[in-house]
Specification:
Blueprint: E1 9-17, E2 20-25, E3 32-35, H1 38-58, E4 74-77, H2 80-95, H3 99-105, H4 110-116, H5 125-134
Length: 146
């Protein structure tokens, strides 16, 4: 990862179609969604993005990092509860660490660390910061006005 800041914000094209709007992601070729309204299509696109990213982590697939948002594209972010474990997974892969090594360094059970990279499990900000630090990263919290 050559980026200074790792964010899971992907550029999406939103185009009208017969039933409403279709959303496609340039960096994730097989991810698409839609909705009757533009707002519904964007909401559904976040769900599709989250689901695909989690599946890619579960199957230990290569997750393409987002490229710069292009003119005419809508920036669509993975939800925070999905982005945190996915980014931990990406950092761990980049650093060459195994789950076992991370668990040992954090003085926790293998399964406890493994759950940190899984959606729906209790992930504290303290543990997120510790794990990031061990992999040469830091955690920043930002809020964006809509």
């Amino acid at each position: 990862m050559q980026q200074q800041v790792l964010e899971l914000i992907y550029g999406a094209s939103i185009t009208p179609d017969d039933d409403g709007f279709l959303v496609t992601f340039r960096d994730l070729k097989n991810v698409f969604s839609g909705g009757k309204t533009r707002e519904e299509a964007i909401f559904n696109a976040v769900e599709a993005l989250d689901g695909v990213l989690l599946e890619m982590v579960a199957e230990d697939l290569n997750i393409p990092l987002p490229s710069d948002i292009q003119p005419g594209e809508k920036a669509i972010s993975a939800s925070p509860e999905v982005a945190a474990p996915v980014i931990l997974h990406l950092l761990r892969q980049e650093s060459g660490q195994t789950i076992g090594i991370m668990a040992q360094a954090m003085e926790m059970k293998y399964q406890t660390y493994q759950r940190m990279e899984t959606y729906g499990h209790y992930l504290t900000l303290k543990n997120l910061k510790r794990a990031a630090s061990l992999m040469g990263a830091s955690v920043e919290l930002r809020f964006r006005k809509l």
